[in-house]
Amino acid sequence: MLYGIVAATTALLLAAVLAALLRAPALRLALLDRRQRQRRVPLSGGVAVVLATCLVVVAGDRTGFAPLGEGMGALLAAGAGVAALGLVADAWRLKTRFLLVGTAVAAACVVPYGDTGVPAGVAAAGWIACVTLAFRALDHADGVAGTVGVVTAFGVAACAAAEVMDGLAVLLSVLAAALTGFLMHNWPPARVALGGCGAMFTGFLLAAAAVTTRAGQDAVTGAGVLFALTAVAVADAALVVLTRRTAGRPLLRRGPDHLAHRLRRLGLTPAGVTVGVGTAAFAGVLVGTLVHTGVLGAGAVLWVAGGVVVVVLVLWRVRARVRVSHEVMPSHRPRTRRQPVGLVRPPRESVESAQSVEPAKSPLRASRRTESPQVSGSLRVRNG
């Protein structure tokens, strides 16, 4: 217990310090976030999270205070390899298919086939690879990927602790602490970004740890728990696929189609988007953890699935409705030069129509106009 507190505190401070120190080298090497064109955000946060997590966990294992246990060393090594692949993608635009294949190979090396079986293990490896890339896609706005990663890490750590997997619980707790230290620099407006290195490392560890905790249990309930733990990443990926398919655009081409982009169009602030997405992640993780521990039945996952479907459809339709309204009622109207009130001339048609209509005759008004010395002669004759 004491070591867990010390390890988490060390990882938090180390990640915060490393993220600040690595910012200048990332700027010199032009290792910048290409999403935001107005601000140069260096991708040093991911390297800081990976280094802080690996150093603290390896130190605890080597000193004997917190042994990782069987298979955890291979999991950490595979996560470091995926992080290196993400760092290469940050520096040189690797195609997504290469990232998917490399992540799938790393996932195939850590799946416990003895507990899952070969067919289910292959499916689990594919799921780990997809979730890893979904977490990489979550790093499209300030604070979103880090917040979702912290919440999910605590939830999966609770599931691991329920299965008496102390080494895995310590690993995930250290990861959550490192992400918290990174969020000190990534909270809107961000000074550093997670990048593919940190996002893929986080997604891989979380997905592989979730598969490990559910190995050997009911497959249907396990699939529901895995879905609930990663509901936000699944919702973001589903929204992107639905939007780009219906618009006829390539799936792998970047664009403002993610959850944070849609929420920003609805008027939320960057901090509000981060808090809202983090709250949604907390709700899904809470349901998944309670189902895993047996507090809730497996049917509770259906509420999470229904919420994901509603959110995806609503955000998808909101954009279409806004586009139609802009086409019908354009917001930018041509500006006309305003003239003084006395110099504005009415249209000729309105003048002729006004002259054709005979004004109402009022003896009192006529007498006043004829007796007034300020009335012109033409008006005096017409009214008389």
Automatic annotation (TrEMBL):
Protein name, as recorded: MraY family glycosyltransferase
UniProt keyword Transport, yes or no: no
Keywords: Cell membrane, Membrane, Transferase, Transmembrane, Transmembrane helix
Record EC number: 2.7.8.-
Gene Ontology molecular-function annotations: transferase activity
Principal place of residence: membrane
Region (Disordered): 328-384
PANTHER family noted in UniProt: PHOSPHO-N-ACETYLMURAMOYL-PENTAPEPTIDE-TRANSFERASE (PTHR22926), UNDECAPRENYL-PHOSPHATE ALPHA-N-ACETYLGLUCOSAMINYL 1-PHOSPHATE TRANSFERASE (PTHR22926:SF3)
Membrane topology of the entry: Multi-pass membrane protein
Residues spanning the membrane: 6-29, 41-60, 72-91, 98-114, 120-138, 145-162, 168-185, 192-213, 219-242, 263-288, 294-316
Entry superkingdom: Bacteria
Keyword S-adenosyl-L-methionine belongs to the record: no
Subcellular location(s) per record: Cell membrane
